[in-house]
Amino acid sequence: MDVRAALSAQAIQAALDGKTKPPGSLGRIEGLAAQVAALQGTPAPRVESCRLLIFAADHGMAALSAFPQEVTRQMVGNFLAGGAAASVFARAVGAEVTVVDAGVAGEPLEAEGLVSRRIGAGTADAREGPAMSADQVREALEAGRALGAGVRADAAAFGEMGIGNTASAALVAAKLLGRPVGPLVGRGTGLDDAGLARKRAALEGAAGRCPDRMGAVDALREYGGFEIAMMAGAMLGAARARRVVLVDGFIAGAAAASALDLDPGCREAMVFCHRSAEAGHGALLEGLGAEPLLDLALRLGEGTGALLAFPLVRAAAAMLAEMASFEDAGVSAGPPAG
């Protein structure tokens, strides 16, 4: 896929340099504005609305977490009630929220406002065998593509909830990058040193079941979560619809890496929003050649970092669309020639 419209980089740069400021003086905001302009195909881009999609699912490796698996289901209720951090941040920045059951353990959830796309009642234990079947991977990706393509907002932010999903993300990232999983393993929900050591040993054992480097479909089948696979599909769908794709932290980063493996062209829609405090996120960003906008020591997930970055993206687009040019303002562009 190629999300670029018929607007040259030279035309965008000329529009930026013509604004009433020294060239390049707004630093990375200028690059962000140029990215959005290219994505939307206009030198006057707009990013005024945002929708956060939170994908929830459970994992067979949940026992490695400091929190019990039932927290996933409980947090879905918290999202729907508007009490989670992501809910609060969404209200603060004017974003709408959609909560998706991609595969929460137990009986199917029924709640007003919940979107059900459940693939199953949680994945299998990836320490012992594949987390899901090939058919389940395809189903999750396709459900995500449809949800992402259906976003009716200028920007689509993506978050997740699933006890055990930092373990899944570490394994998926390791296989996509072709790196050992050990250095990518972090504390997740707050493991102590002993718990972290057990988690690292368990994931190193799980990683040994498969080749060092794998493609996205195989990595997701062996180690992924339903929410990670569905989020990857949603990123692909939103990118194809030319929405700005706001990539959150480590787990969303693993989904983004999966999406990029499936379609490198979707990179032009992606904004990497923050550098998580989770151990593997720095290595994942490095492997993707991505420089995030923020570094706030966040490690919550839920799309919180993506929401906090949304105002920067909105401001960058507004700068290019609304800032006066030297000609319009009657301001001299520089010292006279000669």
Automatic annotation (TrEMBL):
<dbReference type="GO" id="GO:0008939">
    <property type="term" value="F:nicotinate-nucleotide-dimethylbenzimidazole phosphoribosyltransferase activity"/>
</dbReference>
<keyword id="KW-0808">Transferase</keyword>
<keyword id="KW-0328">Glycosyltransferase</keyword>
<dbReference type="InterPro" id="IPR023195">
    <property type="entry name" value="Nict_dMeBzImd_PRibTrfase_N"/>
</dbReference>
<dbReference type="InterPro" id="IPR017846">
    <property type="entry name" value="Nict_dMeBzImd_PRibTrfase_bact"/>
</dbReference>
<keyword id="KW-0169">Cobalamin biosynthesis</keyword>
<protein>
    <recommendedName>
        <fullName>Nicotinate-nucleotide--dimethylbenzimidazole phosphoribosyltransferase</fullName>
        <ecNumber>2.4.2.21</ecNumber>
    </recommendedName>
</protein>
<comment type="function">
    <text>Catalyzes the synthesis of alpha-ribazole-5'-phosphate from nicotinate mononucleotide (NAMN) and 5,6-dimethylbenzimidazole (DMB).</text>
</comment>
<dbReference type="GO" id="GO:0009236">
    <property type="term" value="P:cobalamin biosynthetic process"/>
</dbReference>
<dbReference type="Pfam" id="PF02277">
    <property type="entry name" value="DBI_PRT"/>
</dbReference>
<feature type="active site" description="Proton acceptor">
    <location>
        <position position="302"/>
    </location>
</feature>
<comment type="pathway">
    <text>Nucleoside biosynthesis; alpha-ribazole biosynthesis; alpha-ribazole from 5,6-dimethylbenzimidazole: step 1/2.</text>
</comment>
<dbReference type="InterPro" id="IPR003200">
    <property type="entry name" value="Nict_dMeBzImd_PRibTrfase"/>
</dbReference>
<comment type="similarity">
    <text>Belongs to the CobT family.</text>
</comment>
<dbReference type="InterPro" id="IPR036087">
    <property type="entry name" value="Nict_dMeBzImd_PRibTrfase_sf"/>
</dbReference>
